[in-house]
Amino acid sequence: MLMEQETIKILYIGVFIVMGISLVFVVGQWISTKKAAYVWLIGHLIVLSITIIRWVSFLSNANMQQSHMAAENNSLFIGSNAVLWAIGMFLLLIGIYKLDKTAKTGI
Predict the structure, then answer these.
(1) Sign, Cα dihedral of 30, 34, 39, 41
(2) Domain interval for residue 93
(3) How many folded domains does the chain comprise?
(4) pTM (whole model) above 0.90
(5) Can you list the alpha helix ranges (DSSP code H) found in the chain?
(6) What would the DSSP string read from start to end of 67-82?
(7) 15's torsion region: left (phi>0), alpha (psi -120 to 50) or beta?
(8) CA–CA separation, 26 vs 5, rounded Å?
(9) Phi-psi category of 64—alpha, beta or left, where left has phi over 0 and alpha has psi -120 to 50?
(10) Residue 62 and residue 74: Cα distance in Å, rounded?
């Protein structure tokens, strides 16, 4: 995949900035409210960050010579990222459910 030389570096910086701000915000909410549901959201952000960084890494290595198993390796990589994404979404849904549950009961 052809890209400008600095594109991957800018993608990494952008991911770190956005996910860092998100993590600081959610941790701040967790500290101020003491609601355990925010731990699930923190887990979501961590898994999502790992997945995004893996995708950017995959994009940056797309120009490399690949072995005779390139299609299989790429499929495995995409599948493992899909599983990580699904785990992250599951953590997000648990966090949202627990926040909604505590909001209704007043805990």
Answers:
(1) negative
(2) 2-105
(3) 1
(4) no
(5) 7-33, 37-60, 70-105
(6) -TTHHHHHHHHHHHHH
(7) alpha
(8) 33
(9) beta
(10) 10
Residue 69 clears pLDDT 90, i.e. is over it? no
Which residue's entry shows tokens 């990222």?
Answer: 81
**Euclidean distance between CA atoms 86 and 78, whole angstroms:** 12
CA 16 to each of CA 20, 49, 73: distance values in angstroms, whole numbers, following the listed order = 6, 8, 27
Residue 95 · residue 44 · CB < 8 Å? yes
Residues belonging to the chain:
107
What is the chain's mean pLDDT, rounded?
A: 84
Using alpha carbons only, give the angle 84, 37, 29 rounded to the nearest 5 degrees.
Answer: 105
CA atoms within 13 A on the CB side of 7: 10
Judge contact between 30 and 39, C-beta under 8 A.
yes
In terms of Cβ atoms closer than 10 Å to its own Cβ (0-12, 13-18, 19+), residue 12 is middle
Cα(92)–Cα(22) distance, integer angstroms: 13
